[in-house]
């Protein structure tokens, strides 16, 4: 069975143009590598469909649809995670000039944001933990100082009351 390239007005088909062009399936949706990968797959498929103006394709018809190598800079799609690669989605000879790099950037940014969010979340959790430990250490230190001062107050102090007042004021400001 031959395939007609899904790109409008391309007309390349896998029988007539065998060996001349390669024909690629739409990006599959990987479901077993975590939510970030699944979302990236969905986004990539969405960008492919938007690029070739084929939002009419559904899950079933996509299975029997191919995009030919004529629409990729390097003649084939880039790896899923290479979101900044121009070949992350078809970009050439699409029969229109509406390819906006923004599409790729949006997908990339979204992917980065998911990664960033995880990193930031872990960082915040670590910071919370560090702050909690610091607060606990400060509390213990304060108790220790207070205990020392209590002990010290048993000892007669040889400090001029005026100086003490100044010290108190200094502490307050
Ligand atoms: Zn084509």
UniProtKB/TrEMBL annotation:
Protein name: THAP-type domain-containing protein
Molecular-function GO term, any one: DNA binding
Residues spanning the membrane: none
Cited PROSITE patterns: ZF_THAP
Pfam families: THAP (PF05485)
Biased composition (Polar residues): 164-173
Keywords: DNA-binding, Metal-binding, Zinc, Zinc-finger
Organism encoding this protein: Exaiptasia diaphana (Tropical sea anemone)
